[in-house]
Design a protein that fits this description.
Keywords: Membrane, Transmembrane, Transmembrane helix. Pfam families: DUF2157 (PF09925). This protein is mainly α and 325 residues long. The protein has three domains: 33 residues, no CATH class; 128 residues; 113 residues. The mean pLDDT is 82.
Amino acid sequence: MKKHQEEIRNELINSKLITREQGNQIDAYKKLSIFSLHNELRTLLYLSVSLFTAGIGIIIYQNIDSIGHIALLLALFIIICFCFFMSFQKAPRFQKTETFFSNSLFDYLIVLAYILTCTFIGYLQFQYSIFGNQFGLATLIPTLIGLGCAYYFDNKSILTIAITGLAAFIGITVKPQMLLQWDTFNLNTLGYPSILLGAVLVLWSIYCDTIDLKKHFKLIFTTYALHIISLACICNLLSYTNRVPFAIFLLLSTYYFIKTSIKIKAISIYIFTILYGYIGLNIILFMLLERLDFSNLFELFIFLLPIYFILSIIGFIKSIKKFKQ
C-alpha cells in the first residue's frame, strides 16, 4: 500500500499536478499518523444520550414510591425545557435547505430533549390517563412534536423516531417474539395500513422535492417506505389469502424503488429492493407452480434449482457492479 501511494505521488509530480515540495509535505503529514475521531465521538455521544435516557427510566421505576410522581414529572419537565431552550438558542434560522448547528453537540441535546418528551408524555398517560382511553394520542402527539423538531432542527435521528411513532399510531407493530415464532405473517396490521403508510411517505418525499423542503430527508422516507411496503407485501404473499393484490403492489413498488435508488444514488435502497423483489418473485413463482401438476418433472426441477440460484447470484453481483458504474 505504501509503495502504491508513493507511485501515485510520483505520478502526480511528474504530471505537474503538484510540486515536489507539496509531495514532501504530503509525506510529512502521513508520517504524523493522524486519524479522525469524528465517528468515535459521535458514537459515544449517541451512547451517552441512550444511557442517560435509560438511566432516567430506571430511576423512575425504582424510586417511584419514595420520590413521587409529581416530583419526577417536574424534574423531567425542567430538563426538557432546558434542553429545548438551549437548542433554540443555538439553532440556525429555519431554512428549507440543509442546516447545521454551529456545534454538533446540540444535535444530541435536541435528541435528548425529544426522547425525554416522549418519556414525559408516556408517563403522564400511564399514571394519570390524561388522554383517557385514547391511547393513540399518547403516540400521535410525540410523533407530531418529533416531526416538527426534525424539520426545524434538521435532525435525521428525530425524524426516524417520529416515523416509527407514526407507524405505531396506525397500528403497525411487530414484537420480537412474533418474529421468532413466525407469527408475523398472521398480523392484519402488516397489510393495507402498511402499504398506505409507505405510499404516504413516498408521496410526501415527492412533494418535498417539488417545493425544495429538506430534500436530503428523501433517503430516510424512501428507506422506511421500502421496508414497510415490501415486508407487508411479502408477509401477505405468505399468508395464502388474497395474495394477488399484494403481488401487484410488490411488483410496482420494486420498479419504483429501483428507479428512485438510481436517481438519488442510494445503493442501500437498490440492494434491499433487489432482495425484496427477488424474494417476492420466488414466492409468486411457487404460487404458480402450486397450480400446476409437475410431479413428472420433479427430478428436472431439483436439477435446475441450483443452477437457478447460481444464475441469480451472478445476476445480483452484475447488477450491483452496473449500479456503481
